[in-house]
Amino acid sequence: MPDHLMITAPVRRQMAALPDGLRKLVFDVVLLLLEQPHPPGSQSYEGVADMYWLELDEVTIYYNAYGTGTITIQQVVVND
């Protein structure tokens, strides 16, 4: 289980701008990534080492999972 979570400043702003329900969903998923960095449905981001993406109904979360130690949230994109 990773023991470090990093959320970049731009992503914190992205998350703050989300509607309350969607923000809670993203936050809950981010916490779950700490327990399981590669949940079912996550896919590696082609061409970038240790980067993955997880598409939910309303958002896609792009993140790095470095070994078993660190998760870095890189971007949260609202799906059209």
Describe this structure in words.
- A hairpin with a 3-residue loop joins strand 4 and strand 5.
- This protein has one domain: YaeB-like fold.
- Helix content is 31%, strand content 35%.
- The chain is globular.
- The chain is an alpha+beta fold and 80 residues long.
- It contains 2 helices and 5 strands; from the N terminus they run βααββββ.
Number of domains: 1
Q: Which architecture name does CATH use? A: 2-Layer Sandwich
Residue windows where pLDDT falls under 50 for at least 5 positions: none
Structural class: alpha+beta
Q: Indicate the percent of residues in helices.
A: 25-40%
Assigned CATH superfamily:
RelE-like
The major sheet is characterized as:
5 strands, mixed
**Strand order, sheet with most strands:** 1-5-4-3-2
Radius of gyration (Å) = 12 Å
CATH topology: YaeB-like fold
Give the integer mean of the pLDDT values. Answer: 91
Structure at a glance:
The protein contains 2 helices and 5 strands, in the order E-H-H-E-E-E-E. By secondary structure, it is an alpha+beta fold.
List the helices and strands and how they pair.
Elements: E1 4-7, H1 9-17, H2 20-35, E2 43-44, E3 51-55, E4 59-66, E5 70-78
Parallel strand pairs: 1-5
Antiparallel strand pairs: 2-3, 3-4, 4-5
